[in-house]
Amino acid sequence: MIVHHDSEHDCLTLQLGERFDFSIHRDFHEACLGSGGAARSYVIDLGEVTSMDSSALGMLLLLREHAGADRAEIRIVNAGTELRSTLRVAGFDKLFVLH
Q: What is the CATH number of the domain that holds 64?
């Protein structure tokens, strides 16, 4: 996972690797939630992700709560067709901006 914080815009970008599952829980948590205060916005880049499990969905929900729930600015980008379908079936298209 590659983490980039644009301090000018207070945007945290996470470029995830091939697997978005429980194996990256600790790194994801530290990158998004471990710094204390929430960033103004988040970009979750799924361009490299080929598999995602239910813990990934849970991590996204925790991030949403940390970022302010309905006020959260979280964009999920570069999701492949299968991942985008999974996110839509789970109703995440109503909670996050999918690009």
A: 3.30.750.24
